Input
Amino acid sequence: MKRNVLLIVLPYLVNPKVLVASKRVKSFKAFPYGVLSMATYVEKNVSYEVKIEVLDCNVYDEDFVTLIKNKLIKFKPDLVGLSMSYDVSYKYLKEAVDTIKTYSSESVLVLGGSVSTSAYDIILNEHDNIDGICYYEGELPLLRLVNSKHMIHLLETDASWITKKSLINGRIPQKLSIVNLDEVINLDYSFVDISKYNMTEAFSPFAYKREKGKQFFLITSRGCPYSCAFCMRSADNDKSMRYASVEEIIKHVRYLVEKNDMKILTIYDDQILLNRERVKRLFKELAQFNLRIECPNGVSVAFIDDEIAKLMRKAGMDTIQIAIESGSPYVLNKIIHKPLNLKRVKPVIKILRKYGFWIQGFFVSGMPGETDEHRDETVRFIKDIGIDWASFSLAIPTRGSELFRTCVENGYIKNDSQIGGLHSNKFIINTPEYSADYVIEKTYLMYLDVNFVNNYRMRNGEWRIVLSGLRSVIKRQPDHAFAYYYLARALFNLNEIVEAQFAIDKFHEIIEKDNKWKKYAEYFKVR
Output
């Protein structure tokens, strides 16, 4: 038996985690990690001859319908799998499905991705031509499907797949997960054109100063034992953790360095530090490659001590993102449900300073139940602990999360709760206490306060470091008035008068043309 399998990544508009700091957020073209993992796993373990191709609709200028049509005509797939990880992709689903059924009517058509798992009943009721939806992770379910002689029968009888018939029969879907992640670490990048992808390094003066290089990312563990309300995993009762071995990770990293000239390794684990002995071994081994290492999902201060900080720095981490979420104990414990002792944060910051890290804190604003008093408490907390940068994410009710359920039940997002209505770059929660527009404005004032007006490095007169950070802001947002103003202050303090005068002139030019920036300048008495 021989089978052609086509895996298609549906279009998406923006990176799902949008910082308030970014007024013009554009998607960076990240490797479709989940699809690559499935393709690699199936190709290695399938029982007979199979040809797999991957079509990522996000890296081509051509219309996605034309892309899909041409690929179907040329490849003639027996099985087509659509990947839909973001809510915003739902508006493309119908056209994709119609195109597949028009040009490859005999193909079995399945769907997967986090949004699909969270809204499988709605999707199946709205789309007659989807044969099945994968429940949670896809490697094992896809392998079973490809290996089966009768794919439709497999979909109807395997609990890791959901169909219209299984819904009618009341069959409860079950997660089917790979336990040993060594089986999915060594990805086969030949399924895609590597040259079409460009990752974006996390915001950091270190990233700004260094020469750019090829960047790849890696997920070395899966799962999370916590239940933060804004996370889609908060509704998942499975709190287990699974890991790839250090040996297999290093083997893959060596391959990426030697064969693809990797210079930057981005580790996207949700809880990279949870297994302390494993992560110490990992960072010790990574030090040999002279890479720049990032963990942009954030790490927990609960697991950082002097030894861990030292090992991370030697391995190539110069910037660290710590996931704090709020400076209010009430918000953390009663609203977000994050088990973090805020008293531990400041001593950890001191350790990280010892090893020269640029320290960025992640905070979430706009959770229902959070008040202005709580937000002001967060601002005071940030100023007290002395981090280099605070990144504020507005609370997005990700489908499947506790936050999503709370918002729907209380009418905080109303019609936006329909699939395809959730916009990851738009704050949409309206409570009786605070409108969405009010929270957006309040949060941006928090961002300006702690990162510019009362910036830690500026308060301490560390002007060279300030320069790097502010130039990075301007590179990302060329019309940021406050970045120019404080750049001018830093340059004047360094006696670089000509460039300083240019920056201050640019500040005045922006606030004269832009009433919003003029309002911010008046609010903070910036002149």
Remarks:
- Residues 199-454 form a domain with the pyruvate-formate lyase- activating enzyme fold (CATH 3.80.30.20).
- Confidence is low (pLDDT under 50) at residues 14-27.
